[in-house]
Amino acid sequence: MSDEHSGAGMHLDVLLEDQYSKFVADGLEPDIVVGAFKDKINLGIDARDGSVDVFLGNLSTEDARDLAAALTAAADAVESSTVEGGGQSWTISSDTDRS
Hints:
By secondary structure, this protein is of the alpha+beta class. Helices cover 19% and strands 34% of the residues.
């Protein structure tokens, strides 16, 4: 996704593409929704205009902590200006076998 919205507040850009169609939504205003249940955590990103809802469901407590750690590391890198021009990424594995 582009950096054209980087000066504005949080935004949501979505590109969904398969062999038959392509859907693009750009610059939407999102709400981040976190739901905690007895044995799982769900993360939702909802466009305020209702056009896009994205859910990441059934996160374990370990998944949620890994996500929090990655967000914290990214925030620390931006604040300390250690991110190079090409950017930096953190990946949260969806593997169920984490031994």
